[in-house]
């Protein structure tokens, strides 16, 4: 059983788990994990964000926040509530994978975000490559049963797909993936695998970046098995700065934490 890593606050009647690291005087960052993750997904990055005040949140349906499942807009409202409780504004919102949707929604609606960082997320699913059979997880009852009874080796296999080929998924990361899987509300599967596909097709992230007009950094992994770095041109055309990490897959925050931290810290400190 995972221990509580931070604090809890009530937002809209929901108990939300979050953690704050770093000096209150530092550049404020909020780190938003992806689908099936938790605030622990940034454990390797946070110690490297020296001088920053770093807020991490377990999204609804994830980690110690647990259920209920929610789409990116509702997740953003909850994150905004946490930032309000902490009295933070001028925040750099960093979103990994599904967390990128949440970061953009937060920037569009809260007024507390000054900059956005998108990590390892394409604008939509138009050329994505996902594991076969993922649609089964979106089916009522079937998806819940598959999630509940998934053996540890299957969870480890999914975790291995989320990193670059050849990257060693050690015992600590495998345990984290298993803990995160067990904490995940099964209602997140249709939200991310089905509803999100439709949402991104109608309003891709690069369009939202262009319309938002805030300074945006996009960090892509060249060896991302889901998306690759094929969307670099689309984000550049939308006005974002794009950095591609050659050796990283879908999870640069665990594969190349030093490089990611350097990029985030420099971007957050720009005038």
From TrEMBL:
One MF term in the entry's GO annotations: hydrolase activity
InterPro entries listed in its UniProt record: AB_hydrolase_1, AB_hydrolase_fold, AB_hydrolase_sf, Epox_hydrolase-like
Keyword terms: Hydrolase
AB hydrolase-1 domain sequence ranges: 29-261
Name of the protein described by the UniProt record: Alpha/beta hydrolase
């Amino acid at each position: 059983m995972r221990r509580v890593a931070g604090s809890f606050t009530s937002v809209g009647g929901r108990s939300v788990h979050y953690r704050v690291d770093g000096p209150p005087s530092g550049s404020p960052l909020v780190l938003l994990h992806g689908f099936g993750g938790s605030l622990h997904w940034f454990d390797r990055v946070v110690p490297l964000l020296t001088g920053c005040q770093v807020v991490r949140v377990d999204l609804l349906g994830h980690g110690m926040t647990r259920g209920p499942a929610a789409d990116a807009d509702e997740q953003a409202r909850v994150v905004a509530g946490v930032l309000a409780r902490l009295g933070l504004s001028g925040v750099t919102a960093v979103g990994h994978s599904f967390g990128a949707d949440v970061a953009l929604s937060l920037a569009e609606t809260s007024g507390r975000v000054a900059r956005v960082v998108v990590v390892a997320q394409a604008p939509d699913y138009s050329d994505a490559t996902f594991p076969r059979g993922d649609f089964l997880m979106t089916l009522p009852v079937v998806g819940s049963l598959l999630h509940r009874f998934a053996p540890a080796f299957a969870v480890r296999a999914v975790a291995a797909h989320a990193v670059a080929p050849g990257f060693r998924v050690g015992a600590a990361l495998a345990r984290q993936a298993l803990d995160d899987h067990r904490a995940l509300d099964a209602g997140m599967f249709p939200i991310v695998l089905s509803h999100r596909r439709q949402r991104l097709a109608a309003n891709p992230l690069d369009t939202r970046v262009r319309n938002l007009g805030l300074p945006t950094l996009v960090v892509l992994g060249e060896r991302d098995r889901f998306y690759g770095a094929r969307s670099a041109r689309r984000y550049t055309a939308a006005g974002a700065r794009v950095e591609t990490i050659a050796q990283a897959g879908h999870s640069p925050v665990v594969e190349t934490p030093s490089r990611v931290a350097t990029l985030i810290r420099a971007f957050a400190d720009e005038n």
